Amino acid sequence: MIYRVAADGLLLLHLAFVLFALLGGLLCLWRPSMMLWHLPAAAWAIFVEIADRGCPLTRWEQLLRLRAGDAGYSEGFVEHYLMPLIYPDWLTLPAQYVLAAVVLLVNVGIYGWVWLRRRSTHL
Q: Which stretches of the chain are DSSP H helices?
């Protein structure tokens, strides 16, 4: 039971990381120091997608599920609603390149907006 709870918790952490890597730049509007956390997270997300190395969170989650006695991803609330978001069926290497580009473009747009906003308030 503890391994299953840990795997579900890791899946939630993984989703939070994905959302932070994609949209965390918006937090810089609130706290500019968030850039110190967000830029490395976004860079890691882009690297993982482009290098096709896989995220260590995925491997750790699968290991926890195996230790829990699951033969893969058994259905539950977390798996049913969150797994398709993080591990969609269409996730191929070309799709990962597109996802990396999306993360990069969204973040360039967000940081451009943050920079312009900060610049206009200092003028």
A: 2-23, 27-30, 35-51, 56-67, 77-86, 93-122
